[in-house]
Amino acid sequence: MLKNRKWQSLATTALLLTLAACNAEQWGDNKHLQPLSSKIKSEIKDIGSTKNAPLYIRIFKKEAVLEAWKQKKDGTYALLKTYPICAYSGEVGPKKKEGDRQAPEGFYAITPGQMNPNSSYYLSFNLGYPNKFDRSYGRTGKHLMVHGSCSSRGCYAMEDEPIAEIYALGREAFEGGQRSFKVHAFPFRMTPENMAKHRKSEHFPFWVNLKNGYDHFQVTKKPPNVEVCNRTYVFNPQGGGSFNAQGPCPDYTIEPSLMAALQSKRSAEEIQFQKAIRALEEKAAEKQADDLETIADAQRDILTRRKRISEGKNPDGFIAGLIQGNPTTPGSTAPTVASQAPVSGQAVPASAQTPAQPGGVSGFFESISSGISNPFKKTPPAPVATPAAEAVTLPATPKPKS
């Protein structure tokens, strides 16, 4: 076994040196051969790993982060470092076709041949999109990368310093004998709360499938073995026949203790999922009530202003008074309050007691405003009952055929 790994290491080194010789002028400073810093080596040691140990990468699009994990002596993986993603294309959701400027989501594997030291974007590695799953849906696209230079057209872009370190981690893992390192790209951290937040998305069924793979790693701390059948990702299958991405799934099993752990996790998360949905619906109901109250306040304000204008009062200042009030003809003087006051002992005519308004406008607005107290009065939102036919649940971990 050691002899075989040593041979693989020598073969990988020879391949890198050969490529370096062919592209020496283009690579210039040999940035693809930058050694790991003493700091990152110390961090690798602190998590109980080594620089040549296998690498695993997780990407979370919404949070714009890339996680690098390294294998420990017991076979499990520990988080080494989280890197910021400088830019990615599109929004949450899978890439479907060439030119849609979406960054991929799914399960990919990186071989030495996908590492690009001569990238136009400093350094890069190709995700391998479309994979078997993507092709089963007829999805198209090429040259989807994780790269430097902080510029994205369907890729995940990093600053140059982080991509140099990630590239070096991959190179050292290949040097240690790892044939490919896995990159699992998710739309967001797949917590019950985030799943509830995105439950109405057209991509929700796809994300549920991704979450199954996410949960396998959360439980085992080992990247799951990924297969595709019936146009669905399958994780850690045991037994069964060959897997055809578009054909029916063969009979397979999942290790019993792993299945039990997954089912226990999903049962607990279903409670959190439903609780999160209720909280989101209550928040939405409160916002709707606030919006309606704001509209009602605006309508009452308009009615009040119109009423004041119809009474000859001026709520908006001199200009509004000229436009909406009682304009006078040039050379004439508008009657003042004092000039309209009755002389002591003189009877006040009925017509003078209530100023006449054209078309009875005052009475019209008075009748409307008196009839509107607050039709949108804010009340505590009642719990929203989701019809049974439309109830959303976090699907249970799929049971393999036995």
TrEMBL record:
Entries under Pfam families matching the protein: YkuD
Active site (record annotation): H147, C155
Stretch list, region Disordered: 325-402
Pathway: Cell wall biogenesis; peptidoglycan biosynthesis
InterPro entries assigned to the protein according to its UniProt record, in alphabetical order: LD_TPept_cat_dom, Transpep_catalytic_dom
Bias kind Polar residues: ranges: 325-343
UniProt keywords, alphabetically: Cell shape, Cell wall biogenesis/degradation, Peptidoglycan synthesis, Signal, Transferase
Bias (Low complexity): 363-373, 385-396
UniProt GO molecular function: carboxypeptidase activity; transferase activity
GO biological process terms, semicolon-separated: cell wall organization; peptidoglycan biosynthetic process; regulation of cell shape
Leader sequence segment: 1-24
Stretches assigned to the L,D-TPase catalytic domain: 55-186
Family membership: Belongs to the YkuD family.
UniProt-recorded name of the protein: Murein L,D-transpeptidase YafK
